Amino acid sequence: MKHEKNPWDTTHFLNYVLTLLTIAMALSAVGIGILLGKTVNQSTISQYTHVNDRIAVLLENEYDRTDTIMKHCLESQEIQDSLRSREPDNMERERLELMLSYVDLKSLETYLYVDNKQNLYLQAYRNTSYEKFCASGLKEALGDEYSKTCWIRTKDRVFDREGSYLFIGRYMRNMEFHHEPGMLFFQVNEGFFQNILKASAQEDAICMILDPSGQLCSRTHRDSFALSKNKKQICARKWRNISRKGSHRPGSICRESERSFFKQLQTAALRRRP
Predict the structure, then answer these.
(1) What is the Cβ-side half-sphere exposure of residue 57, based on CA atoms within 13 angstroms?
(2) What is the pLDDT of the chain when averaged over all its residues?
(3) Which of 4, 31, 182, 225 lies deepest, with the highest CB count within 10 Å?
(4) What is d(CA 182, CA 172) in angstroms, rounded to the nearest whole number?
């Protein structure tokens, strides 16, 4: 006797197969999505790591350039004469101040030179005192470095100007006689860092340069993207976390489609005063 096929069994089987196919397709879609997400993420990290590394190279190059300028100043006859035991005359002071005024340093605001007799050499329109200089913390920031150029980011307590500035400083020593050293500082404005960011940053990224404590030195897209105090604190916290973990990858903060990458000043000579 011939058994008739049960249509319900066929329908059940087809539903079962379709369910399996649907699950398989969904899992495939999820897998492809994860794979594409990882690929895009890796591509983004790779792209901005290159930007980050380029900023680091430009910072190192700029440090080497400032170090060369400091060495030229040290070797100049004007600086060497000022480090002798006798007091300089007016002509010698004018020659030294003129030489420092024409130093080829980008974004130079002003300079401050203190010889080993506590005499101050300033631009004509600047005014300060030795007491203010001592209270500024610049001398302490140089530390025990015998002949090293230091980048010091600090509030301007020497000329009482608002905001923080980068001071590029070094001890000046007489190369012929053993005398106490003098100290030379060049104050530069934010354009110093802006030139570095413009030469390396990309239009779709907000790039920032932070000092070792996580404080913001400079950034791009200042006009088009406001950075609140809270965001700055998040940047600083993220950088400190990255530093503690020893990661060399750029940190990131995402806001919708915008991505921010920041670079810490890696030069060992950089110091910061509160």
Answers:
(1) 9
(2) 75
(3) 182
(4) 5
Q: Residue 262 has what pLDDT?
A: 47
Cα–Cα dist 266/269, whole Å: 9
pTM of the complete model: 0.70
H-run or E-run covering 16: helix 7-75
Burial of 24 (0-12, 13-18, 19+ CB in 10 A): exposed
Q: Helix axis angle, 7-75 relative to 191-200, nearest 10°?
A: 140
In whole angstroms, give the CA distance from residue 116 to residue 183. 8
Distances (CA, A) of 35 to 25, 243, 257: 15, 29, 20
- How many residues make up the chain in this entry? 274
Q: How far apart are CA 178 and CA 143, in angstroms?
A: 19
Burial of 22 (0-12, 13-18, 19+ CB in 10 A): exposed
pLDDT digits (tens, 9 = 90+) for 182-224: 999 999 988 888 888 887 766 666 777 777 666 777 777 666 5
How many Å apart are CA 219 and CA 91, to the nearest integer?
Answer: 43
Summarize pLDDT for 79-108 with one digit per residue, the tens.
999 998 889 899 999 999 999 999 988 889
Q: Which position has the token pair 């011939």?
A: 2
Q: Which residues pair with 264 in a beta bridge?
A: 210
The whole-angstrom separation of Cα 92 and Cα 40 is 63
Q: Which residues pair with 161 in a beta bridge?
A: 156
What is the DSSP code string of 47-115? HHHHHHHHHHHHHHHHHHHHHHHHHHHHHSHHHHHHTSSSPP-HHHHHHHHHHHHT---TTEEEEEEE-
Distance of CA 138 to the CA centre of its chain: 19
Alpha carbons 250 and 263: distance in angstroms, whole number: 7
